[in-house]
Specification:
Layout lengths: L1 E6 L7 H4 L8 E2 L2 E2 H11 L4 E6 L3 H8 L8 E6 L5 H7 L10 E5 L2 E4 L2 H11 L3 E6 L9 E5 L2 E6 L13 E8 L1 H5 L9 H11 L4 E5 L3 E4 L3 H12 L2 H5 L6 E5 L24 H9 L3 E8 L10 H16 L7 E5 L26 H10 L7 E4 L2 H10 L2 E5 L16 E3 L2 H10 L3
Parallel strand pairs: 1-4, 1-6, 4-5, 8-12, 14-15, 14-17, 15-16, 17-18, 18-19
Antiparallel strand pairs: 2-3, 6-11, 7-13, 8-11, 9-10
Length: 433
């Protein structure tokens, strides 16, 4: 596989830091960002790198030359005129030789397991794979809607006032096939996010969404630049790489994050507990992932459709992000084993391995995010959550909201009992080994 790095930026907002240097040459802990991106490619066996240059290309060419000093082969492409993010990459279509192409942006710091991404892309046989992730400011980001890893819609900013969206943002890392590049106009400027990708989805092409909690952040403003540099010096990006084992705090939904409503079936009835968003944000600021795992028997009972459940989760994510919090993953069980309800969905009335206290939801998350379950914790308000934790070897943390453990039999002892989610999270993070 080849890699193209879009490296033509001026970096106007970074002038106090880089002077008149091209933006991709901004130093991060003493090493230019572009050098770090090339090093990432080399670590994962991608040694054919193409740089799309615009502003002051001689600075970049003089530094990297043919790439041999950096363990790669470098080719340079200079725009005859501004072609946009997609147009500049289309130039190299004849050079692909039928291979797929990894695309990175020269103003986005990336630390991720490229093997996992590429394997995902090949497994899905997608026309293009977009790396996506939740962030803490989706209100001013272009958002993506996906179903079963397939992108179905783009919601570019500004967003409709009062609407709820999934917190899924284009991270600026792509794997593209030659077929996708061939869709890019060769006679005018075009942008991947605003032009090429939405048109491909509208035409029925399969664009896959690779959702990852790995470290991918733009450095386009001084504030973001200094934040990334501080994280780099603290070793956070390497710890977030899915080549490294992660740990998670698995959160029950109803009665733990949001106010308990029996068989919650309307987005209008969802309300966060006071302090819940701040608790999730504390997880985000730690080395833990925040993963929601919830039984939703309402679906099997015919009280709610999957689309309506998705709307509830969109509202949940939107409410969390208003306080700068995000969920790294949402996993739910739509099944229910007991029959005899008037509106029930027969094919969902089964005994399954994903309904808590069974553990398949957790196992799916562990596989996707390389989670060490024994270093993780489960937080919930019922015996099902506590039993799941025991089966997984996780710490079991009971909250006194919702059911408050009223269904827990005598003699069962969780590892800790907290007043609410905030206290539970503080205990987990504060007692980590």
């Amino acid at each position: 596989m080849k890699c193209a790095v879009i490296a033509g930026g001026l970096g106007t907002r970074l002038r106090p830091i880089i002077g008149d240097q091209p933006k991709p040459m901004v130093p991060l802990d003493g090493i230019p960002l572009l050098e770090r991106l090339i090093g990432l490619c080399r670590r994962f066996g991608i040694d054919d790198v193409h740089l799309m240059l615009g502003y002051r290309p001689e600075v970049i060419r003089d530094y990297f030359q043919d790439g041999s000093a950096f363990g790669v082969r470098i080719s340079y492409w200079i725009e005859p005129q501004p072609l946009g993010t997609a147009g500049c990459v289309r130039q190299m279509l004849p050079a692909l030789d039928g291979e797929d192409l990894l695309v990175l942006y020269g103003d986005v710091f990336v630390e991720m397991d490229l093997h996992r991404l590429i394997n995902f892309h090949h497994r899905h046989r997608a026309t293009a794979t977009l790396v996506v992730h939740p962030n803490d400011h989706p209100h001013d980001s272009d958002l993506i809607e996906a179903k079963n890893d397939r992108i179905i819609e783009f919601h570019n900013k500004p967003h409709v006032a009062g609407a709820y969206y999934s917190n899924l943002v284009n991270a600026g890392v792509y794997v593209l096939t030659p077929n996708l590049l061939a869709r890019i106009p060769d006679d005018r400027a075009s942008d991947f996010g605003h032009d090429v990708f939405p048109a491909a989805v509208a035409a029925g092409e399969f664009l896959a969404a690779y959702n990852t909690p790995e470290y991918i952040k733009d450095i386009g403003t001084p504030e973001r630049y200094f934040h990334v540099e501080a994280d780099l010096r603290a070793g956070k990006p390497a710890r977030c790489n899915l080549a490294s084992v992660r740990k998670a705090i698995f959160l029950d939904r109803d009665g733990t994050v949001n106010v308990w409503v029996p068989l919650l079936s309307k987005a209008a009835d969802l309300e966060l507990y006071p302090g819940a968003a701040q608790a999730v944000r504390a997880i985000n600021q730690s080395d833990y992932l925040a993963v929601l795992t919830t039984n939703q028997p309402q679906v099997a009972r015919g009280l709610i459709t999957v689309a309506e459940l998705d709307d509830i989760h969109k509202k949940l994510e939107t409410l969390l992000t208003r306080d700068g919090a995000k969920l790294d993953g949402i996993y739910y069980c739509p099944h229910h084993p007991d029959r005899g309800y008037p509106e029930e969905i027969p094919e969902l009335k089964i005994s399954c391995q994903c309904r808590k206290p069974n553990t398949l939801l957790f196992e799916h998350a562990a596989e996707r995010f390389n989670i060490d379950l024994r270093s993780s914790a489960v937080v919930g308000d019922s015996i099902r959550d506590m039993q799941s934790a025991r089966r997984l070897g996780c710490r079991a943390v009971l909250v006194q909201t919702g059911l408050g453990g009223s269904d827990i039999p005598a003699g069962f002892r969780p590892d800790y009992t907290a007043r609410d989610l905030g206290e539970a999270v503080n205990w987990i993070i504060g007692t980590e080994s």
